[in-house]
Each structure stands twice: as structure tokens, then as C-alpha cells.
Prior knowledge:
The chain is 39% helix and 15% strand. By secondary structure, it is α/β, with parallel strands linked by helices. Strands 1, 2, 3, 4, 5, 6, 7, 8, 9, 10 and 11 form an 11-stranded mixed sheet that branches. Helix 6 links the parallel strand 8 (178-184) and strand 9 (205-210). The protein starts with a helix and ends in a 6-residue tail after the last helix.
Amino acid sequence: MSVIQNHNKFLNLRQKYQTFEYHAYSFKVKNGSLEAEFTFILNDKTIFRPSFKIESRNFYRFYSMPDSLLRNLVFHIGMVELISYWKAACPPKVIIKPHSLSDEQVRFWKKLYFNGLGEFFYLNGIVTSQNDFMKIESEGSMLEPEPTSLNSEAVLVPVGGGKDSVVTLELLKNTGDKVIPMALNPREAVVRSIENAGFTMDDSIVVNRTIDKKLLELNNRGFLNGHTPFSALLAFVTSLTAVLSGVKYIALSNESSANESTVPGSNINHQYSKSFEFEKDFINYFSQYITPDVHYFSFLRPLNELQIGALFSQFEHHHFSFRSCNVGSKTDSWCGHCPKCLFTRIILGPFLGDDKLKSIFGKELLDDKSLQTIFDELTGVANVKPFECVGTPDEVNAAVSYIAQNHAAPLPGLLTGISYNKSARSAMFNLLEAFNTEHNLPEKYLPVLKNSLKKISFA
């Protein structure tokens, strides 16, 4: 469809479907696990009931924390879940029935929804504004924030199966603090990452999220579909599990590169809910409206993708078990055809070497000319970066230049015909010595990160 056709589709659906209602939420504690369900209603007719379950663990404190705090935490997960269902028709009015929201809370959610759906609006040709895309009304009782006692010598680490969370897990496990891995809908690579780092799944928090099949039916019928701010959902879910576990610290693995827009000159960022801007907003909101005692931060925020790639290269026991490819996630494989695969190969190139990377991916991706368009997007030749969690063109070009200058002739196909300047090596070292000061790391974890950077070496 053309941009005009997509925008007209958006307008037609909004005219037909006027309201979206967050009708109710419920939860129960059973045999040491927590089960929750949400009820959303589209236009008073279509009912969605997504759910999640936190698997039983002996370290949860269900009966020593206030029921009102648990209720507050679950309600807010529903506030993030609703966006996946709202986007099918983008009704102009959203009604929050379980609880009332202050004007400041409404502003937080509208900002998150709008920026988190930036890619969705862009790719669907939807032209709207933060003020106009939805109106939020709320009713019911107000929820109050509550203090809670949490262990400041424990840290919860969400694990996604890729290189970033491996680095966080491996570095934090040697700090002396208790580390608890956390997995949302764990796939095979997640389980391997946790176990290869010396933990077991019984040591870990496991949350299973279920999408209502009616949403998939609407997608098949041609309703609107696209990217939503998944990391915002992860933030609220992880915070719930941290409070249940009595853990103060939550260490994400989002790097400084996540702050860069996917579409240059705009606020459209595939990684918005991984950005420092969202991190700050979330911390302020959570402290003001839920509990002030959780410390949510990204352990890798001071670093760029090259530094993370260099650190990951030191953990050889993860090299053949990690997966960053979304396309191959269901088959536990690298597809070899997507931006994530090519980006990962490039960013690890200076540190793992060509032969090992060929073994990891099953082929030399830099020799695959069918990836030329993706290569141009990653290096900034194209106008728009891939809508994936990838690094900046500066990081990619530094790695590409280093690979080319240290590669025996002949060069792989994607690297031929490119002019590499003599400053490529210095650009690489400048990036490896960088340290972003905009972060929320607890002071005690800063030396861990800085000392690890001193051990970086090249292939």
C-alpha cells in the first residue's frame, strides 16, 4: 500500500472503532506463582484477554508485601499491554476503567505510546501528533505509591539471549551481589545464556506472557499492525518481579547507541523504550506512582556497541550459543539475511576474527551481495537505518574499516569498492575509549564496567 492508502486506512478504522477500554484486571497467587489477566474491549464488542504467569519460586514474598502494592504493579502492566491491542484500529478515545490517572500520569502514557509507536506510525504512513492520536479518560479509585523494603545487595538481570545481556550477566556475577537472571517467554538461547553463565532456570525468574489470539485474527483480517515498545513492558514486568523477590536493583542491557533515532532528523526510534529518555521517564514515574525503592538502570548505558562487542568476545563459552536474530528466534538459528545478523557479524569482526564468525553464522555474511541494501542502511549510505536494535553508522563504519584494513586480499564482496580513510583505526580506538556519563548506574557498579574495558583486545 502507498503512504496515502495506509493513512486513509488508519482514518477509516478510527471512524469505525471509536473507543478502546481497559475494562479490568485480575490476579491470583496459586502454589507460589502469580497469574494475571487483563480485559480490553474494542468498540464495546471485541474483547481481548491477554495474560501472564510468573512461575513459582521459593524466594517470592507474596504474603509479606501489601496487596495494594501488588495490585498497583499488575494494573500498570496492563497499561503497557493495552497498546498492542489499541493499535489494531487506533480508536481516538481510550477509557481506563480500573483506576483514575492524574494529568501527569496521562502525559507520561501519551508520550510513551506516541514515541513507542513512532515506527508503527511511520511504516503505516500514519500522520498524527502526540496531542491528537488518542484521548485518555480514566475512572475508578486512585492508586497510591508505597515504600517497600528491598535488598541493596541483590540485582535482577533480564536475559534476552543476545550478546548484551550476556555481558551484563557475566560482569555482575563477580561483584559479590546476589544476581538473579530473569526471562520473559524464554527461548532456547535465553536458557543457554543463563546456564552458560553458571545459573540454573530454578535460580531464575520466569514470566510467560500470552497474547490473545483474537489480536492475531484481526492482524490476518488486515487491521493495523506493527512494532510496539516491548522494552517498556519488560520494564514494568521486571519491576514487579523485583519487588516480589525483594531485590532493589534491576540491571538492563541497553547501550548508549539506543538513543539514536532510526530515521535521522526525527524522533522515530525503533529502540525508544531502550533509550535513556525513556529510562529517566520510567524511573520518575515508577518512583512517584508505584514505589520509590526500586533502582532501575541500564548497566551498559555508558557503552557503545563496539565496546559491548569487545567485552562479549572475552566470554568464549557463549560464542556459539547466543542468538540476536529475531527472524531465526523460533528455530534457534541465525537466518543470515537480516540486519541483526549482518550487524552482529560486523560489530564482532574486530574482536573474534573472520574464521570464527564464519563458523558462528554458517557463512561469510560480508560476501553475500544480497545483503547490500542492509549494508547500506547500517553504514549510513541509505537515508534510514534498519528498524532493528542495531548500532550507529559511526560504530558500524569504524568496525567495517578496521575489518577491511586487517583482512587479507581479496576483500569480501560487501567491502570492495569502498574508500577507507587512514583515520579508521583512530575512530575505532576513540569509540573503544568512550564512556557516556548520562547513566543511572549505582556508584558501586561503575568500577566493574570501567575495569572490564581495560581488558579489551583485538582478534
